[in-house]
Here is the input.
Amino acid sequence: MAVTWYPGHMHKAQKQIKEVMPQVDLVIEVMDARIPFSSENPAVKTLRGPRPCLKVLNKSDLADPVITTQWLNYYSQQEGVRALALNTTRKGEARKILNLCREMVPLRAQRGEPVRTMIMGIPNVGKSTLINALAGRAIAKVGDEPAVTKQQQRISLGNGIVLSDTPGILWPRMENENSGYRLAVTGAIKNAAISFEDVALYAVEFLLQHYPEALKSRYRLEELPIAAMDFLEVIGRKRGCLRAGGVLDLHKVSEILLKELRSGKLGGVSLETPAVFDEEKVTERPSESV
Ligand SMILES: Nc1nc2c(ncn2[C@@H]2O[C@H](COP(=O)(O)OP(=O)(O)O)[C@@H](O)[C@H]2O)c(=O)[nH]1
Ligand SMILES: [Mg+2]
Here is the structure.
């Protein structure tokens, strides 16, 4: 799945979301718990206006629980925002959000009117998986994004909640080079502009600095090399990623490292903490005008 966002795509996505927003009471923004900053789209704030927003830090099974707690505290201080960590692939877990949805829009619930919710988020964060888990049946295709948003259908989730079956698909942060790498490390973007080997090197550099123990235990090493390339060389040899003449197959070892990281074999790893806002001094660009 590769989604490339051009200004035309962004314009269209925003326009579609704006059109349905008057019939929405609550926005459920799905983000990747490993990279909440890079998987959040600041335009959501503008698009939702005064509506409350439930931020779902999804794939929390792959994230560092200590850092996920920091993010939950960070978001819960924002006006109109509640946040919760989820592992949508675990049976029964997704429906935990229903009570929270009702609580967040008390007036609708009091009047006996359904709370109308809509899921939004960048590609690959788990929107379709969440829709299916909430609905209890396969409505949205997982791992695939429709090029054109189809007609919205409302599905009743029980408990006084209805959900649009079509998520609002937004673009990932693109103004920041680190975000590009981190989105690629998690597999959210398969950007041909960043080679596989470069993504693996970025990941190893980060892991050497922040999760050295995870690397040592996964690859049974007592000492870690200082340089990322040396590390890939060491595990490449251990795993037999060699070409003729004993030359390291960098592509193969990169593939192994990223696959293991993405599937949680190194334990919970988070690539961003709330300090990222200060560290990277990003300028928020909440929305492009439509
Ligand atoms: N480990 C893990 N994987 C998840 C979770 N939620 C979704 N996924 C996986 O993430 C991938 C993308 O999910 P999908 O629902 O298609 O994302 P969408 O593009 O936002 O609709 C799929 O392979 C899902 O199985 C989760 O909570 N934990
Ligand atoms: Mg989807």
